[in-house]
């Protein structure tokens, strides 16, 4: 004798909507709380300034000088520290992008402990090439 009533097997459904909501909330949380580190590959300790930075809209060329006086043009090292080599490297880099040197802004990123002669040599090379727009990079003092 069969005492159990005839039942059809019920299909059990797993509702994934709350799971998807939680995953999206976690994704948004991590996107909002993540900080992106925008530091140059070359470690240069910049001098401090109390003036806010101004956005440049022109073509820029970054010349970094480390504490030992080594030059890096757009993060590529220049082999020797002679004035002629520096001028040739700047001219070659600018020549690839534009012919008008007055439109190019040279940003000088010198370490706070850089020898003064290295900075003067870089400014002299820029002047001899006809670069008239020169900026010296600093960090904002707290």
Describe the structure.
The chain has 142 residues and is α/β, with parallel strands linked by helices. The protein is built from three helices and seven strands, in the order αββββαβαββ. Strand 3 and strand 4 form a beta hairpin. Helix 2 crosses helix 3.
Throw out a few tags for this protein.
142 residues; alpha/beta; Nucleotidyltransferase, domain 5; five-stranded mixed sheet; two-stranded parallel sheet; 32% helix
Gross geometry: elongated
How many helices? 3
- Strand arrangement across the biggest beta sheet: 4-3-2-5-6
CATH architecture of the domain at 58-140: 2-Layer Sandwich
User: What's the overall average pLDDT, rounded?
Assistant: 80
Rg from alpha-carbon coordinates: 29 Å
Low-confidence stretches: none
User: The CATH topology of the domain at 58-140, please?
Assistant: Nucleotidyltransferase, domain 5
What can be said about the biggest beta sheet?
5 strands, mixed
**Relative helix content:** 25-40%
SSE pattern, N- to C-terminal: HEEEEHEHEE
Span between N and C termini? 88 Å
Strand content: 15-25%
Q: Which structural class matches the secondary elements? A: alpha/beta
Main CATH class of the domain at 58-140? Alpha Beta
- By DSSP, the count of extended strands is 7
